[in-house]
Write a structure and sequence with these properties.
This protein has helices spanning about 5-15, 25-40, 45, 155-160, and strands at about 50-55, 60, 60-65, 70-75, 85-90, 95-110, 115-125, 140, 145-150. By secondary structure, the protein is α+β, with helices and mostly antiparallel strands. The strands form three sheets. A four-stranded antiparallel beta sheet has the order 3-4-9-8, with no helix packed on it. Strand 1 and strand 2 form a beta hairpin.
Amino acid sequence: MTIRDLVTRNREQRNLPVWRVREHPFSSLQKQMNELFDSFFTGFERSSFGALEEGQGEFVPTVDARESDKEITVLAELPGMDEKDIEVSLANDALTVKGEKKEEKEEKDKSYWHVERRYGSFRRVIPLPDGIETDKVSATFKKGVLTVTIPKSAKTESAGKKITIKSE
């Protein structure tokens, strides 16, 4: 076999159809799996962290509830909102915090005009235990954080009992 035979074979092989990566069955399968997972997880990455979904009108604020012997404290992070846009109510052993976030940004210049609008409403319901004093509930809003304090009744505070566990 001479070098010329090798060179000729290479030229002949160049005329053969080439299997492209996108036509490979495993590449096609991988692409389809990526599209499946991308479509399944769409919207989770931002909405789970309290972001405003563009075009979907969904705003999910972060809420933290703490309970002590004397009271229940609920903290809700509502950045960029005013207290007039928030409604807090207590009914059926549940605290409901709801509101609407409206954000509009406008920039004008000689050569362009840029406007962005985002809207979103939310409603969070926090179940409450029995024995709370509904007439003494207070709410404050400071620097984008809503704090709702719900005092427990005196009989609920003393009603608790620690039970010891015996081993056999």
